[in-house]
Write a structure and sequence with these properties.
The chain is α+β, with helices and mostly antiparallel strands. Helix content is 36%, strand content 12%. It has two domains: 79-253, Structural Genomics Hypothetical 15.5 Kd Protein In mrcA-pckA Intergenic Region, Chain A (Roll), CATH 3.10.290; 292-488, no CATH class. The protein has an eight-stranded mixed β-sheet with strand order 5-4-3-6-7-1-2-8. Strands 9-11-10 form a three-stranded antiparallel β-sheet. Strand 4 (139-142), helix 4 and strand 5 (155-156) form a beta-alpha-beta unit. The chain is globular and about 85 Å long.
Length: 496
């Protein structure tokens, strides 16, 4: 009987095949004849089932093998990697010798290589470890377009550091730029030495010959390059280092949250590109942090729930709402409830409070268990210590799962962190950005209410010392500070 308790009849066992089974020395024709005789005694359904079982028992001949994961753990301390970079098939050789910090992302290394070979960065590109950039046996690190297309299995190169792919003398990495002309570079580590805080991101120490120009048809030999270059033998180390000094660090290397980097890359294809880039740059000079007293005051609503849930839990009604006494007590500490109409003793009617309480569950501070609200392990570890609780919130404001909630949270955090205190909450601007990114609410654009209803929005509103009015939300200093802290972090709490 199946494990689900349902009853299904099974076919009676078939009588053994009466003839002699094939011996090892039987020829192929005899084996085929006997196989056909066996099939002749089976129904159509039994034949299909047998063939399906045979196919399922072996490897799928049409499925490509999974690519290997060849990355290594990041180094405990950054080093300087001396790397020789050669253009494949160049005659005479065209190469550059670079000193690179190992803690750079591959997104920045891409920019360095573009500068080193005087290219303009308007074609597709990728890195490969363990083989050619188009071999099935290599691990790929893909540019944003290739990631979005999803045709090749690989990691976004912005999520990978150089020291995950190159660490020791002799290590190799492949890079290809412009899949048409196919400029294929081979990177090989020649030396490793310690780095310090003053070590620049990238410095050139040598090289030979001018690189082929963009869109010249893949020319790599000097005789051909003489037709498109004034002097194929030209190489100026000083000019190269000036170009490398102008290379901007990729967002990944500026300490920004990976989700913000993803938003910036998506916005590059929309009219919002400039605004998003300017706001992200503003995060390099974040808002003034709050002191301990200010943090405790801002976290008052959160602290009430953490303290109450940590002392035996908050009991819920059979309908799943907090009971009247707790509803009234929580309403007194939540700024949004100060102007709410009613007695505030029924959570089902105290909508701002219900939204805030549910946001604490979404943000992994509270959990339901046997008719009570209890603390998650992460919240219990932080307890009522304001600094620990602040850090926990900063790590949970951005949902871990891709989707509207994550994109909306990042966009809202970015706008709040860069909007002056006292101005209206930027719900309309965020809704417009998400609409430009392709999100829709039904068949229309994203509305401000879809943004206001996000869990992160409710949490940030709770940090305000007071609510200006029931019909107006404004940005508070604590909300700006916490939003900036969330976008500067890389960790995501997964504990339930």
């Amino acid at each position: 009987m199946p494990m689900d308790g349902s009853e299904h009849s099974c076919p009676a066992p078939r009588a053994p095949y009466p003839g002699r089974m094939p011996a090892e020395h039987d020829d192929d024709e005899e084996i085929r004849r006997r196989f056909e005789q066996i099939l002749a005694g089976m129904s159509t359904d039994e034949t299909r089932a047998a063939i399906g079982a045979l196919l399922a028992s072996g490897p799928d001949p049409f499925r490509a093998p999974a690519r290997p994961d060849l990355r290594r753990p990041q180094l405990s301390a950054p080093v300087v990697l001396t790397v020789r970079v050669d253009l494949r098939h160049a005659a005479p050789p065209i190469w550059r010798r670079l000193e690179l910090r190992s803690d750079l992302s591959l997104a920045t290394i891409h920019q360095v290589l573009q500068a080193a070979f005087s290219w303009w960065d308007y074609h597709l590109y990728r890195f490969a470890l363990g083989g050619d950039p188009f071999d099935r046996s290599s691990q790929l690190f893909l540019c944003p377009f290739d990631v979005e297309e999803g045709e090749d299995e690989g990691l976004p190169l912005g999520e990978v550091r150089l020291d995950e792919v190159l660490q020791e003398v002799g290590d190799r990495l492949e890079y290809v730029y412009d899949y048409g002309d196919s400029w294929h570079l081979k990177l090989k580590v020649e030396n490793v030495r310690p780095a310090n805080e003053e070590t620049p991101r990238a410095v050139a120490t040598g090289g030979r010959r001018a690189a082929p120009p963009e869109d010249c048809g893949g020319l790599t030999e000097a005789e051909d390059l003489a037709d498109v270059l004034e002097d194929p033998a030209a190489f100026d180390l000083e000019d190269l280092n000036e170009a490398l000094a102008d290379v901007s660090a990729a967002p990944q290397d500026l300490g920004l949250h990976p989700a913000l980097v993803t938003l910036m890359e998506a916005a590059r294809r929309t009219p919002a590109d400039g605004d998003v880039a300017v706001r992200a740059a503003a995060l390099l000079a974040p808002p003034e942090p709050l002191d301990a007293v200010e943090r405790e005051a801002a976290l008052r609503p959160v602290l009430w729930f953490v303290d109450r849930a940590g002392n035996g839990g908050i009991p819920l009604t059979s309908a799943g709402y907090m009971k009247p006494a707790d509803t009234e007590a929580a309403s007194l500490v939540l700024p949004e409830m100060a102007s709410w109409i009613g007695k505030n003793n029924r959570e089902s009617l105290a909508f701002p409070l219900l939204t805030f309480r549910e946001s604490l569950q979404t943000l992994k501070l509270l959990r339901k268990y046997k008719g009570k609200l209890l603390l998650t392990r992460a919240a219990a570890a932080a307890g009522t210590e304001p600094d620990a609780l602040w850090s926990l919130l900063a790590s949970t404001l951005i949902p871990s799962a891709d989707g509207f909630e994550r994109t909306g949270a990042v966009a809202l955090l970015l706008h709040i962190a860069t909007t002056p205190e006292g101005q209206d909450e930027p719900y309309d601007a965020v809704a417009g950005l998400l609409t430009q990114l392709g999100w829709r609410e039904g068949e229309g654009p994203v509305s401000r209410y879809a943004i206001r209803d996000l869990s992160v929005a409710s949490l940030l509103r709770s940090l305000a010392p007071r609510k200006v009015s029931r019909h107006r939300d404004v940005v508070s200093a604590p909300a700006r500070a916490l939003a900036a802290a969330a976008l500067a972090g890389a960790g995501e709490v997964t504990d339930e």
